[in-house]
Amino acid sequence: MTTSKTNGHTLAPIKASSLYFTPLPPTHVVPPGKESHGRYMLTIPWNRVSGWGQPKIGPRQDLSFDPLAGVLQYAVTCFEGMKCYKTDQGDVRLFRPNKNFDRLKRSAARLGLPCEWDNDELLELFAKLMALETPLVPDTDGSNLYIRPTLLETSEGFGIKEDAFAGEALLYVVTTLNLGKGLYPSSEPENKGIKLDACKEFIRAWPGGTGSYKLGANYGTVNISKKPGYAMSLWLHGREDFISEAGAMNVFIVKEAADGYLEFTTMSLNNGIVLPGVTRESIIELLEEHASGKKDFPIDGIPRKIRVVERDISMPEIIAGLEDGSLKGMFGCGTGVVVVQIGEIQYQSKTYHIPSNPIIKILRDTITGIQRGKIDEGKSWSYKVPEWNPEGKEGDEEEHVTAA
């Protein structure tokens, strides 16, 4: 199977059937300090002449690049954050993986990296990698196997090129244990939530920039802003000090409106500053179905008179809501943390305490219940990974391809 491109080239697609698998050797020993990482990795090379190369799953290993590779010189890389969960029955699940694949395509297109593949083919390869790592996936509440698909430019990316598109690239997938677990209890009723520092010194994103894409450059350059004693920065923008994200999370405020409705307000995606989070989208879908009467929220406790609002929210508005009592809670959400209560914000040298709200735990328990197969939301959001037990090398003969 091939796919034709407008540039006249015929490029090969990702084909799960051509997978080449190499098992761990009998002498395999986990290197010191790597105990929390997965044992295997998936790699799929690409070049602009022939397209996608042979997928390979084999022992996790280091990567090497030319010193002038685009990923090293200009941070030409994007990634996704996904998780694998184990159910009470022992099978493992992925949560809405096609949403992550589509977002990865969007990020790749923004960088001039390859951005076309069949999600079903990629999902089959993901599933085989997860099946191999099933023994590592924890089954306790709040635990997970975190998955990091990464796409980067491996060809020389130094200096001025004829166009912005990569010559060669690599898509690889590795795993590690329990990203976000430390923040998981922050939605419990007895917990005070996480502490945020409203950052004015550094700007994470701006209109027309890359804030709505999951690019490596968006994250490494802002880590320096994190202050000791705070979980993460609450990013601000504009003269009005509008909030955008907290660390790498989407943010919601829970506020009682003048007409008595409980509003779940989050930043709009229209200005390109906020990442379109999969957890964010899922919460909005469930809340809107409940509000419309189309389908009850999966767990009891969410009022019927609610609405979801997507608009800008400023720090002065949050402060005013605290002063008049209309602000009923605030939380962040994302793949790493699922749903976490925000309990405190430092802003302009003052500390503001955000009230806790039991609804936040309901949201957290609902999403994790769906992820672990305990709740059927009727949308097939939880994908059950098929078993796969290869013996020895499997698949097509190993290819050795050099880009023209």
From TrEMBL:
The keyword Ligase does not apply. The modification N6-(pyridoxal phosphate)lysine is found at K214. Pfam families: Aminotran_4. Keywords: Amino-acid biosynthesis, Aminotransferase, Branched-chain amino acid biosynthesis, Pyridoxal phosphate, Transferase. One of its GO terms (molecular function) is branched-chain-amino-acid transaminase activity. GO terms for biological process: L-leucine biosynthetic process; L-valine biosynthetic process. Its EC number is 2.6.1.42. Its cofactor is pyridoxal 5'-phosphate. It comes from the Eukaryota. GO terms for cellular component: mitochondrion. It catalyses: L-isoleucine + 2-oxoglutarate = (S)-3-methyl-2-oxopentanoate + L-glutamate; L-leucine + 2-oxoglutarate = 4-methyl-2-oxopentanoate + L-glutamate; L-valine + 2-oxoglutarate = 3-methyl-2-oxobutanoate + L-glutamate. The keyword Amino-acid biosynthesis applies. It is an enzyme of class 2 (transferase). PANTHER family: BRANCHED-CHAIN-AMINO-ACID AMINOTRANSFERASE, SUBGROUP IIII AMINOTRANSFERASE. Belongs to the class-IV pyridoxal-phosphate-dependent aminotransferase family. This is Branched-chain-amino-acid aminotransferase. It comes from Kwoniella dejecticola CBS 10117.
